[in-house]
Amino acid sequence: MMSADPPVFRFAPSPTGHLHLGHAYSALLNKQLAEEAGGRLLLRIEDIDTSRCRPEYEAAMLDDLAWLGLKLEQPVRRQSEHQEEYRAILEQLKAKGLVYPSFASRAEAKALAGARGPDWPTDPDGVPLYAGPERDWSEAQKVEALEQGEQVAWRLDMLKAAEMAGPLTWKEAEEGEVACDPRDWGDVVIARVGSSTSYHLSVVLDDAVQGVSHIVRGTDLRAATAVHRLLQTLLDLPQPTYRHHGLVLDEEGSKLSKRDGAQSLAQLRAEGATPTDIASMVGL
Ligand code: GLU
Questions:
Q1: Is the beta carbon of 279 within 6 A of some atom in ligand 1?
Q2: Which domains are delineated in the chain?
Q3: pLDDT at residue 150 in the model
Q4: What does the alpha-carbon distance between residue 48 and residue 198 come to, in Å, rounded to a whole number?
Q5: Which mutation among 221, 241, 257 tests ligand 1's pocket best, with the greatest number of atoms within 8 A of CB?
Q6: Residue 76 half-sphere exposure, CB side, CA atoms within 13 Å?
Q7: Does 259 have pLDDT greater than 60?
Q8: Which atom from ligand 1 is nearest to the alpha carbon of 207?
Q9: Counting beta carbons within 10 angstroms of the beta carbon of residue 77, is it exposed (0 to 12), middle (13 to 18) or buried (19 or more)?
Q10: What are the C-alpha distances in Å from 204 to residues 4, 45, 238?
Q11: Element at 42 (helix H, strand E)
Q12: How far is it, in rounded angstroms, from Cα 125 to Cα 114?
């Protein structure tokens, strides 16, 4: 009899600061669910943003995770080591005519959206949808701007992409099929300036390459699942099951941030907390 492959879970932090109780909850929940399912748990270091990621944060993260009791399979996947793979799938999207070069800086993009007036829509994270003109440029205009060597990001032509993919849903644990509409996000950045990728593109490729079948992550990323399902569909990648968990909040009811040193695992460890204390602090 053929045995099915074991489920694969992953924890995917970005080394932009120290891990806090919210990360501990996500990591320990992934560990618990992987153990219950007889599955594997992988670590992925999401370090494509070289301006914010630091090797010392990665080292501290690995130390905190080992201390928490996570046994991590080696080698660990580091996004910064896979630019060529991201470039290859970016080329696939270019070949399908689904991305366009975009030359506006963050400040210019904000001004372009502001010029559309107060009713201009925002994405689920509250950022105004991209309102720049490049999607409607002729090929000649795009080539000319590219040849001038301007700083370029690549954006998804969302209306075209959503039409090509058709209606989308994702499988959410304990809920079932959830209908989603990636058009809520507008023309998202697929490759940042100076890179061949973005969070959205890397995450879908990495989950496929690593054979991830179960994505367990915070509810702050739930809305982004629409973009991930769109890219998985366009790039013919497998569909994982998702579980979006609640966030650990601070005393004022706000989401924890890596800047909030008091809640960092390093600080709690220094104050004498044990891994068991951390698990009970996050309700596991
Ligand atoms: N790297 C992301 C973060 O630290 C998580 C990405 C994901 O789980 O899809 O928030």
A1: no
A2: 1-80+249-284 (3.40.50.620), 82-207 (3.90.800.10)
A3: 78
A4: 8
A5: 221
A6: 18
A7: yes
A8: 9
A9: middle
A10: 23, 14, 9
A11: strand 40-45
A12: 16
Question: Does the reported pTM lie above 0.90?
Answer: yes
Q: How many angstroms does the Cα of residue 217 sit away from the middle of ligand 1? A: 7
Tens digits of per-residue pLDDT, 43-66? 999 999 989 999 999 999 999 999
- Ligand 1 center–CA 220 separation, angstroms: 10
| Ligand 1 center to 200 CA (angstroms) | 10
Q: Which pair of tokens denotes residue 182?
A: 């990636």
Q: What is the pLDDT of residue 254?
A: 82
pLDDT tens, position by position, 129-146: 999 999 999 999 999 998
In the structure encoding, which two tokens stand for residue 223, read together?
A: 């809305």
Ligand 1 probe mutation, 14, 30, 58, 245, most atoms within 8 A of CB: 14
* Token couple for 170: 């994702």
Instruction: Copy the structure tokens of residue 150.
Output: 């301007």
- Helix (H) / strand (E) containing 155: strand 153-156
Mean pLDDT of all residues in 121-127: 96
